[in-house]
Amino acid sequence: MSHLTTTSRRAPRGEALVRRAFQASGFAALLAVAMVFVFLAVFTLPMFTSGGMFAVLSPVWNPIRGQFGILPMAAATFGLSLSAFALAYPLGIGACLFLNGLGPRRAAGALRAVVRLMTAVPTVVYGFVAAATLVPAVRGAFGGSGFSWLSAMLVLALLILPTVVLILDGQMNAVAGRTRLTTAALGLGPGAALLFVVLPGCRRGLFAAAALGFGRAVGDALIPLMLAGNAVALPRSLRDSMRPLTSHIALVAATDSTSLAYASLFACGMILFGVTAGVNLALAWVRRETPRGGQA
């Protein structure tokens, strides 16, 4: 009896320790994010004190003349990210439908293995292969150098596709398992069950895949650096070269750390930080507002 009493007393203590450890981990993560924000804000201060903060929003980047406009890079970031996401997201949903009942079992298994393999391929390999194959094809078809919005968009969409597929595939598997008997009792075929029962039941998964896929597209630096052409100009068509914020930071980071050009990079970082924070806040709001039944 005394042994049982001792064990029951130890259990709450162990649970309390685990709870405190998780709370400390959460607080540490929150503190780290806050420190990143403070770091970016402090190093952006020279732009405020020099009166150049509004100049950062201009379309001209010419450090020799004291012009540090990052508007073309910001426009390139949103244009490239949104277009790559718009291409990858519906393809990811279609692939998940194929994996979860629309396709033959063997083909679905092979596709799932390929998608998992894609996550292990280094980004530089995607960029190198595309520079050797896709860029000449784009150059021959549309003219120009081939290092363009279109080339970067196609490869970036391929890069974020596994993120969308793997997140949503797990959600669909869980929902399909819970609703299999119900859909069979209703006489629904695999296609109808997926479209009218499983997919609506994956609302949280759909939003999570969208948020993480878009965040992946915004944050990637290597694909735009290798394929987008690095032109500091507002892109007007898919054939134009561009320089997103991530590539701009990578290219200019080696300048004098006391210059305004260097300080403007932290303004770029603030924009990227704001986009990432906005995506995560939107995802948190969706999780709170969506009923638990919509979660896979």
TrEMBL record:
<dbReference type="GO" id="GO:0005886">
    <property type="term" value="C:plasma membrane"/>
</dbReference>
<keyword id="KW-0812">Transmembrane</keyword>
<feature type="transmembrane region" description="Helical">
    <location>
        <begin position="21"/>
        <end position="48"/>
    </location>
</feature>
<dbReference type="InterPro" id="IPR035906">
    <property type="entry name" value="MetI-like_sf"/>
</dbReference>
<dbReference type="GO" id="GO:0006817">
    <property type="term" value="P:phosphate ion transport"/>
</dbReference>
<keyword id="KW-0813">Transport</keyword>
<protein>
    <submittedName>
        <fullName>Phosphate transport system permease protein pstc</fullName>
    </submittedName>
</protein>
<dbReference type="InterPro" id="IPR000515">
    <property type="entry name" value="MetI-like"/>
</dbReference>
<dbReference type="GO" id="GO:0055085">
    <property type="term" value="P:transmembrane transport"/>
</dbReference>
<feature type="transmembrane region" description="Helical">
    <location>
        <begin position="180"/>
        <end position="199"/>
    </location>
</feature>
<dbReference type="InterPro" id="IPR051124">
    <property type="entry name" value="Phosphate_Transport_Permease"/>
</dbReference>
<feature type="transmembrane region" description="Helical">
    <location>
        <begin position="68"/>
        <end position="101"/>
    </location>
</feature>
<feature type="transmembrane region" description="Helical">
    <location>
        <begin position="260"/>
        <end position="286"/>
    </location>
</feature>
<keyword id="KW-1003">Cell membrane</keyword>
<comment type="similarity">
    <text>Belongs to the binding-protein-dependent transport system permease family. CysTW subfamily.</text>
</comment>
<keyword id="KW-0592">Phosphate transport</keyword>
<feature type="domain" description="ABC transmembrane type-1">
    <location>
        <begin position="74"/>
        <end position="283"/>
    </location>
</feature>
<feature type="transmembrane region" description="Helical">
    <location>
        <begin position="113"/>
        <end position="135"/>
    </location>
</feature>
<keyword id="KW-1133">Transmembrane helix</keyword>
<keyword id="KW-0472">Membrane</keyword>
<feature type="transmembrane region" description="Helical">
    <location>
        <begin position="147"/>
        <end position="168"/>
    </location>
</feature>
